[in-house]
Amino acid sequence: MATLNQAHTPSLRAGRSPRTAHTGRSTRRAVVVFVAPFAVLFLLFYAAPIIYAVIQSLLMVEREGTFGAPQQVFGGFTQYALVFQDSAFWASVGRVLLFGVVQVPVMLGMALLFALLLDSPLLKGKRFFRLAFFAPYAVPGVIAAIMWGFLYSPSLSPFGAVTSEINFLDGSLVLWAIANIVTWVYVGYNMLIIYASLLAIPTEIYEAARLDGASNTQIAWRIKIPLVTPAIILTAVFSIIGTLQLLAEPQTLRSFSSAISSTYTPNLAVYTTASIPNYNLAAAFSVVLALATFILSFVFLKATQRKVSQ
């Protein structure tokens, strides 16, 4: 009997059964089928453009004589040296950083307030207000900039009594006019993210707080806001990235205001440089801007995560 049992045990000890092996192969094929579309699109429309931009930033154009045919040669970090010597580009970076320091907290504060109002049991007509708060996000940024450009223009605005006294398109105010457009468009988007996070909070927590005598204001301040902090951090990271990529609004408002130059924001400087055309320098601008965006977002994320964990 012992010999007979030993004859049957090696197949079990050798590894998985044929059925288990077949299931494993089927699982791997299913994973490949589901991941492949994302991987292909990621490589084609994200990784490949980044690699191409980096390669272009390392090249430069040379000519043989005044009228010689241009040819691209390896230039090393020549384009990056020009980037760091470009005062207009770094002035635009400082401009959008100032923009973000003021606009992002205001926008996220409004988004949090609207989300708390929608989650409040005292608010009536939540469906209407949810749609009303989110509706501006459905308006494309270019259309929103054109619409607000007409509202800001002293000769075209229906609020001429205000715009004739306050020139929102003047050099000292045009940055905040752009901030108003961005805030109007994206408050609803950020509100929706925070509101979804509020809906995920178990209602038992609120019931327990009310049994302890907490008011709606105390519940909002001591329970809701701390629990949706990860959502607020997420929207802040998105907003930081969007701030450094500001393009559509200033580009559109250039037809309304002479105070917006061709290098008013970093992305506008990249667009203008590429239109010359100087693709190599524009690529270097883009790479530096992408690295700055990554570093700023990473530092903010790490700082907020450390603060939340404390």
Automatic annotation (TrEMBL):
The keyword Lipoprotein belongs to this UniProt entry's keyword annotation: no
InterPro entries membership: MetI-like, MetI-like_sf, UgpAE/MalFG_permease
Keywords assigned: Cell membrane, Membrane, Transmembrane, Transmembrane helix, Transport
Coiled coil regions, renumbered to chain: none
GO cellular component: plasma membrane
Compartment(s): Cell membrane
GO BP terms: transmembrane transport
Annotated region (Disordered), positions in chain: 1-23
One Pfam family per UniProt: BPD_transp_1
Record-annotated membrane-spanning stretches: 31-55, 96-119, 131-153, 173-201, 227-248, 281-301
Membrane disposition: Multi-pass membrane protein
Gene3D superfamilies with a match to the protein in the record: MetI-like
Domain ABC transmembrane type-1: 93-300
Similarity remark: Belongs to the binding-protein-dependent transport system permease family.
Name by which UniProt lists this protein: Carbohydrate ABC transporter membrane protein 1, CUT1 family
